[in-house]
Write a structure and sequence with these properties.
β1 and β2 form a beta hairpin. α1 runs parallel beside α3, α7 packs antiparallel against α11 and α10 crosses α11. The longest helix has 22 residues. This protein is α+β, with helices and mostly antiparallel strands and 266 residues long. About 4% of the residues have low confidence. The strands form 2 sheets. A 4-stranded mixed sheet has the order 3-4-5-6. 47% of the residues lie in helices and 13% in strands.
């Protein structure tokens, strides 16, 4: 089965019930099933009439566009141009997946610390940088040398245009820069706490400090539970949270569908 038939079949499978008669007619037709053929029949259907005054003009323009233009659109949240690769969402300042990824990873670290009986709180009150921003989490009992643990999570985009020249040559460039910035931002708290920057990248790379922290938490969990794979499990769960955030960020740039206009992005 070639790609054209697969795409056309997916288009038909996603139509609402009111198009059942049209779907049946297409399936029983002797003509070869293609995505362009399905689009043409959908555009000719009367259900597209009068619901939107500019619908006819829109579809007419869309049909004239070449493949390259049809695969480009503007970010629904920020207005920036998005190409067919969709990577803009990974570095968009208003990306949907940023907050969910941030809260999920911090929640994973907090729960991991609780496993070996190390209580921790997120965004601890009364503990902040000179600019008023608080770290993502803090242990409530000493972590090392009589000091509590402070951590702050960040996930930089490996494919951001501003980083691409360096990330294409040096693995981990983004997370290294992020670690330096975090350490500098929290330098005023270094004497009171053990600060660890948890820096990662959208491509799945972990920073040196982040890996050391995760491995230390994992070793403490192993001591309590005797589960030898605890460290690997924690790394996997954080990696999955990062990838879920990537998906949410990319999908968040796609404009809301209306009158099946999304078929032009296929």
């Amino acid at each position: 089965m070639d790609d054209e038939i697969i795409i056309a079949s997916l288009m038909l499978a996603g139509l609402p019930n009111e198009f059942d008669s049209l779907v049946m007619a297409i399936e029983n037709s002797t003509e070869k099933l293609t995505s362009d053929g399905v689009k043409t029949l959908l555009l000719q259907d009367r259900r597209f009439d009068s619901n939107d005054d500019d619908a006819e003009a829109y579809f007419s323009k869309a049909r004239r566009q070449d493949k390259k233009k049809k695969n480009n659109f503007r970010c629904h949240r920020y207005g920036e141009k998005v190409n067919k690769n969709g990577r803009h969402g990974l570095s968009c300042s208003k990306a949907k997946g940023t907050r969910s990824r941030h809260s999920t990873v911090n929640g994973l670290i907090q729960r991991a610390l609780r496993s070996p009986d190390i209580p921790a709180v997120l965004e601890p009150p009364g503990c902040s940088r000179p600019d008023g921003k608080r770290p993502d989490g803090m242990s409530l009992i000493p972590w090392s040398n009589g000091k509590s643990l402070l951590w702050d999570f960040t996930c930089g985009d490996t494919f951001a245009p501003s980083y691409l020249n360096n990330t294409s040559k040096h693995v981990g460039h983004v997370e290294k820069q992020a670690e330096k910035r975090k350490i500098n931002h929290y330098s005023d708290l270094a004497n009171q706490f053990v600060f660890v920057p948890v820096a990662t990248e959208t491509s799945g790379i972990f920073g040196t400090h982040a890996l050391k922290l995760i491995k230390k938490i994992g070793s403490k969990i192993i001591t309590v539970t005797n589960e030898k794979r605890s460290t690997a499990y924690l790394i996997q769960r954080i990696s999955i949270a990062i990838q879920k955030g990537n998906v949410a960020s990319i999908l968040g740039t796609i404009p809301p569908s209306k009158d099946l206009r999304e078929i032009f992005y296929l």
